[in-house]
Write a structure and sequence with these properties.
By secondary structure, this protein is an alpha/beta fold. Helices cover 38% and strands 14% of the residues. It has a four-stranded parallel beta sheet with strand order 2-1-3-4, sandwiched between helices. A three-stranded mixed beta sheet has the order 6-9-8. Helix 1 crosses helix 6. It is globular and about 65 Å long. It starts with 50 loop residues before the first strand and ends with a helix.
């Protein structure tokens, strides 16, 4: 198996590598036009076939589509509405990992994908776990609870995170790393640069197009990051309580405190002790809202909110899009998350 990790190139390095499409002749007429097995028109003379990019789940699909544009066909291993943690691969999906021009995954997040990659021989792989800094998986992130004077001790916070990680209960996953890297937009920007470099490696004549696509996406992700930073800079409440602990990177980036009812695995039911603990945290922190998400049952979140007389709302970890998602892509759903957090945490 050839696994390639591509260091992100500086954006100034790409100059003058023009990608010219040859003129098409004699291939018009929507009726009767043959199509490829994937349902896209076959390449005409002088026009290369689209590159096939296999991605593990939705955020990488978003990046590959935006960076590759018309140059790629993106195949998502996780079906829309499916929970990516519990993914099981069909034989043809395993075969796709070997035939695709590029595979984009995050090792350690989806056991089925990790197992398939151990058997497959991908031509090129971008494994985000190999270049993103992963943080410890805990149910509580950020400032810690119960600071009577309102001051936060950063060193104590790190010690508390370590204590939670060592507990190994249902809200802290012992020894585990949080896989939800994409909820920090700056991480997704880094992924985009690596995808760009991998695609340029296989199709260097398209470098200019791929660079332009990437720069456009980076500009949008930078703006999104700025909106989060400004929108969450002045909040009366630091803590937010969510269905499972998927928001550690978001909390860390924007100086908030995540409280996960569950740990990083969304299908592990919380214990009665954890629910009681969440009750106490909600009261101590003045929390107004208990968040749930689109791919996980809201029953526990709604029960806690009902017990405490609190509101419920959606905070989407963007592991997949559904018809109920509050937006049609990563950027729209993240902005919906921002609006929900600003309301719940009473941000100026």
């Amino acid at each position: 198996m050839i696994t390639m990790t591509f260091p992100a190139r500086p954006t100034a390095f790409l100059v003058g590598a023009a990608f010219a499409l040859a003129s098409l002749a004699g291939c018009t007429g929507p009726a009767g036009t043959p199509t490829s097995p994937a349902g896209t028109p076959p390449a005409s003379a002088g026009q290369p076939e689209p590159l096939t990019v296999a991605v593990a789940f939705y955020p990488f699909e978003f990046v590959a589509q935006r960076v590759g544009g018309d140059l790629v066909t993106v195949e998502n291993l996780t079906a829309p509405g499916a929970e990516p943690h519990d993914l099981e691969l069909a034989p043809q999906q395993v075969a796709l990992l070997s035939s695709a021009d590029l595979v984009v995954v995050q090792a350690g997040f989806q056991p089925a994908v990790d197992a398939a990659l151990a058997q497959a021989t991908p031509q090129r792989t971008v494994d985000t776990a190999s270049f993103l800094e992963l943080i410890p998986a805990t149910g509580d992130d950020g400032h810690g609870h119960g600071d009577e004077d309102g001051d936060h001790d950063e060193e104590a916070d790190h010690d508390e995170e370590a204590d939670h990680a060592e507990e190994g209960d249902d809200h802290g996953d012992e020894g585990a790393l949080d896989p939800h890297t994409w909820l920090d937009p700056t991480n997704l920007a880094t992924v985009a640069e690596h995808v760009r470099d991998a695609l340029i490696d296989v199709r260097p004549e398209a470098a200019e197009t791929l660079q332009a696509n990437t720069l456009a996406l980076l500009a949008e992700l930078t703006l999104l990051d700025q909106e989060f930073s400004a929108g969450l800079a002045s909040c009366q409440i630091d803590a937010f309580i969510t269905s499972h602990a998927a928001f550690g990177y978001l909390a860390h980036r924007y100086q908030l405190e995540q409280v996960g009812i569950r740990g990083i695995e969304p299908d592990v039911e919380p214990t009665a002790a954890r629910i009681a603990e969440v009750h106490e945290i909600a009261k101590a922190e003045g929390v107004t809202t208990i968040f749930f998400e689109t791919l996980v049952s809201p029953v526990v979140s709604e029960s806690i909110a009902g017990d405490l007389g609190l509101k419920t709302d959606v905070l989407d970890p963007l592991e997949g899009l559904t018809a109920e998602s509050r937006g049609s892509d990563y950027l729209e759903v993240m902005r919906s998350n921002l609006a929900s957090l600003r309301t719940a945490n009473q941000c100026a």
